[in-house]
From TrEMBL:
The lineage of its organism: Bacteria, Bacillati, Actinomycetota, Actinomycetes, Kitasatosporales. This is Imidazolonepropionase. One of its GO terms (biological process) is L-histidine catabolic process to glutamate and formamide. Its cofactor is Zn(2+); Fe(3+). InterPro entries: Amidohydro-rel, HutI, Metal-dep_hydrolase_composite, Metal_Hydrolase. It is found in: Cytoplasm. GO terms for molecular function: imidazolonepropionase activity; iron ion binding; zinc ion binding. Keywords: Cytoplasm, Histidine metabolism, Hydrolase, Iron, Metal-binding, Zinc. 4-imidazolone-5-propanoate binds at R85, Y143, H170, Q236, S312. It holds the Pfam family Amidohydro_1. SUPFAM superfamilies: Composite domain of metallo-dependent hydrolases, Metallo-dependent hydrolases. Gene3D superfamilies: Metal-dependent hydrolases, Urease, subunit C, domain 1. Belongs to the metallo-dependent hydrolases superfamily. HutI family.
């Protein structure tokens, strides 16, 4: 790290500090510290505790009696795309149901875009997310569906995040619509060869209209053999084999989890596969909410993310997702804030983000509010007053 470069900074006068480190605070897994301070040294957290005990540093920032929490970890987004789907959204809000078929509209627009256009769209959304407190994001390919278009999406993504996911298996490419087996061969062969060097993860949309359980298993197994770790779009629109496959393959995350049997919930609860809930998708498709309460009561680990994409969830706002999860999915404000920070980190199998503790990256969000509860209590209000990313003030 380059700690000498940035020097050390203390943020004092924090009314509520969410550390997500139970050993530092009291009460919930949030590890809350009142009247707190945080010392940042270079790109890492060096110290946390009560303001009165903070060590001397080069610089001092007064939080003004407001709340500080870990930067949000958005562990599920689809930001390599061009165009939008306003008309599809409009039609849906007049009663047309959502289906996987709309993905093809974005595939056509994405293939037609230049690299510069794709990257500009990505960075515009990243800036938008950062202003809303997101300091780590995962993002996926999946709107190219040719070897060249998928691999260029991943190359562009890798310039902006280390959490890059190969989703060649989003839907069957339109030119192979009559021969899905040939498309699975392409994804597990030439396309995987070209994409594996640029990605950390492999994902499949396991759903009616996309890929069935056997196809998903073949694709994820091929990815694993190339060093990619699985995560799955599972049980979003219907019941299906996705969640159980995720647990069977030790996927880091099963994402959506809207339609679950008791066996699915039980499998998640007895695994280290995180259930990543994406309420922006249910909001924007007028679908029934995933039951976070049921998963939490069973003992599953829950993450909350945006699913930001032009079809089913065109929001980059984690605070919006927190508010929905509290209002409509049975989560407490503490659980939702944990899920959007430490939960996202767990879904990416990361220990160095999602918490404010010595050694973790200094990724911090300052709210214009005295506590994290305001994220759900004051929905739709732009509460993010400051963001540090890797120790650097970014907002
Ligand atoms: O997570 N479910 C599959 N993929 C996206 C939707 C993509 C789209 O409609 O463009 C999702 O909801
Ligand atoms: Fe998604």
């Amino acid at each position: 790290t380059d700690s000498a470069h940035h020097g050390s900074t203390v943020i004092t006068n924090i009314a509520t500090l969410v550390t997500n480190d139970p050993s530092l605070g009291t009460g919930t897994p949030l590890g809350l510290v009142r009247d707190a301070a945080v010392v940042i040294d270079g790109d890492r957290v060096a110290w946390t505790g009560e303001s009165s005990k903070a060590p001397a540093t080069d610089k001092r920032v007064d939080a003004g009696g407001r709340a500080v929490l870990p930067g949000f970890v958005d562990s599920h987004s689809h930001l390599l795309f061009a165009g939008d789907r306003t008309e599809e959204f409009n039609a849906r809000m007049s009663g047309r149901p959502y289906s996987a078929g709309g993905i093809r509209t974005t595939v056509a627009a994405t293939r037609a875009a230049t690299d510069a256009e794709l990257e500009a769209n990505l960075t515009r959304h990243l800036r938008e997310a950062l202003r809303q407190g997101t300091t780590t994001f995962e993002t996926k390919s999946g709107y190219g569906l040719t070897t060249a278009d998928e691999s260029r999406a991943l190359r562009i993504a890798a310039r902006h995040t280390e959490e890059v996911t190969f989703l060649g298996a989003h839907v069957v490419a339109p030119e192979l619509a009559d021969d899905p087996a040939a498309y699975v061969d392409l994804v597990t062969g030439e396309m995987l060869d070209a994409c594996a060097p640029h990605a950390r993860w492999i994902d499949v949309f396991c759903e009616q209209g996309a890929f069935d359980g056997d196809q998903a298993r073949a694709i994820l197994t091929a990815g694993k053999a190339r060093g990619l770790h699985p995560r799955i779009h599972a049980n979003q629109l219907t019941h299906g084999p996705g969640v159980r496959l995720a647990v069977e393959l030790d996927a880091a995350s099963a994402d959506h989890c809207t339609h679950l049997t008791d066996a699915d919930v039980d499998a998640l609860a007895h695994s280290r596969t995180v259930a990543t809930l994406l309420p922006g998708a249910e909001f924007s498709t007028r679908a029934e909410w995933p039951d976070a309460r049921r998963l939490l009561d069973a003992g599953a680990t829950v993450a909350l993310s945006t699913d930001c994409n032009p079809g089913s969830s065109f929001t980059s706002s984690v605070p919006f997702c927190i508010a929905l999860a509290v209002r409509d999915m049975g989560m407490t404000p503490d659980e939702a804030v944990w899920a959007a920070t430490a939960g996202g980190a767990a879904a990416l199998r990361r220990e160095d983000i999602g918490r404010i503790a010595p050694g973790a990256y200094a990724d911090l969000t300052l709210l214009d509010a005295p506590s994290h509860v305001h994220l759900a209590y004051r929905p739709g209000v732009p509460l993010v007053a400051g963001v540090w990313r890797r120790g650097v003030r970014a907002v």
